[in-house]
Specification:
Layout: E1 2-7, E2 16-21, E3 29-39, H1 41-47, E4 64-71, E5 83-86, E6 89-91, H2 97-100, E7 114-115, E8 135-139, E9 144-145, H3 153-156, H4 162-172, E10 180-184, H5 188-199, E11 203-208, H6 214-220, E12 224-227, H7 231-235, E13 241-246, H8 255-258, E14 261-269, H9 283-286, E15 291-294, H10 300-313, E16 319-323, H11 327-335, E17 342-346
Parallel strand pairs: 10-11, 10-13, 11-12, 13-14, 14-15, 16-17
Antiparallel strand pairs: 1-2, 3-4, 3-8, 3-17, 4-5, 5-9, 6-7
Helix pairs in contact: 4-5, 4-10
Length: about 350
């Protein structure tokens, strides 16, 4: 079926309106009328062809909230009229150990997982086209139920990437009461990390290079704020953290944060910088049995858990709504970190 969308035809061309083909729903498919789509920094990298394997034309968007308009005959998870979400994945092998454990983001099949846009991780098969569009067809396994009220739906969209990307390490490393958790960076990812860690009951310390973000971090739920450029402020927290989630998408010194971990603490990277971080020193890890780890989005069960938790606690992302036609201006502002904290597209502007 033909569907309106915004696409980049080449890495050099701006996003512009076009018409794409969506498949008619098969037996296990769900057709979704897209209401809102969050704008992730990955969208910008993709539209500009800045990562390997990007396929064009590119229709970004993997923070999708919409209404079910049609379902296949074998669909049992959702019904027509339901409000649902779609995140960064639309398929996986379904049979490997990771998929069996509900960790589809670590799919060990021959192609990895299928991204919502730009196809399978290894480039197999056809291109996929994301949420900067009026509608999308998705296998029911990768469709998530949204239980927030209608007024909150725009703020739910970023939970499908920024929310789950921070929730997954917080849950895996057992953030909660009695734990001291650091969040490095106060942006699209970091602001959700602060909100979620606070809601889980941890003592939350936000790290930022900008004094101007101190009050923002406190308002988001941080118990303390540390200016990471201040050596004395950093030293005051030496050997005290159970977990630090690093959301910064720029190359930086990891040693400064590793030394803040207590014995058996973990520094978990969720930001994806264009250039590698400087290699960390070995001895700070050896002498504290500390861990340096990474974490990628979350599996479908975990993402549903996060959405349900956020609905129960009244948590949404802090957003600025834009029209689809303003996406290039939004990208320019993203490059200057001029958004608090996530742009969300009102897809009515496309329709």
């Amino acid at each position: 079926m033909q569907t309106k969308a915004f696409a980049a035809q080449t890495p050099q061309s701006p996003l512009a309106e076009t018409v794409i083909e969506r498949r008619e729903p098969g037996p296990k498919d769900v057709l979704i009328d897209i209401l809102y789509c969050g704008v992730c920094h990955s969208d910008l990298h993709t539209a500009r062809g800045e990562w390997e394997g990007i396929r064009f034309p590119s229709v970004p968007g993997h923070e999708i909230v919409g209404r079910v308009t049609q379902i296949g005959g074998e669909v049992s998870k959702v019904a027509v009229g339901d409000i649902v979400g779609v995140g960064c994945m639309t398929d996986s092998c379904r049979v490997c150990a990771s998929c069996h454990d509900g960790l589809e983001q670590y799919c060990e099949g021959p192609h990895g997982f299928q991204q919502t846009y730009s196809g399978w991780l290894d480039g197999y098969g056809e291109n996929t086209l994301g949420g900067y569009s009026a509608a999308i067809t998705v296998d029911e396994h990768f469709v998530l139920k949204v239980n927030h009220g209608e007024a909150d739906l725009a703020g739910v969209a970023p939970l499908l990437c920024a929310g789950i990307t921070t929730w997954s390490p917080l849950r895996h490393w057992n953030a909660g009461p009695g734990k001291k958790v650091g969040v490095v960076g106060i942006g699209g990812l970091g602001h959700m990390g602060i909100k979620l860690a606070h809601a889980l009951g941890a003592h939350v310390v936000a790290f930022t290079t900008s004094e101007s973000k101190r009050q923002d971090a406190l308002d988001l739920g941080a118990d303390e704020v540390v200016i990471s450029k201040d050596p004395e402020a950093m030293a005051a927290h030496t050997r005290s953290f159970d977990l630090i989630v690093d959301t910064v998408a720029a190359s930086h010194d990891l040693d400064a944060f590793i030394t803040l971990l207590r014995r058996d603490g973990a520094l978990v990277l969720v930001g994806a910088p264009e250039q590698p971080h400087p290699s960390p020193s070995v001895f700070p890890m050896l002498l504290g049995r500390r861990s340096l780890a990474g974490s990628a989005i979350g599996g479908i069960p975990e993402t549903q858990e996060m959405l349900d938790f956020c609905a129960e606690k009244g948590i949404t992302a802090q957003i600025e709504m834009i029209a689809m036609q303003d996406i290039e201006a939004a990208y320019a502002r993203m490059l200057k970190s001029d958004v608090k904290y996530r742009f969300v597209i009102d897809m009515a502007s496309l329709k």
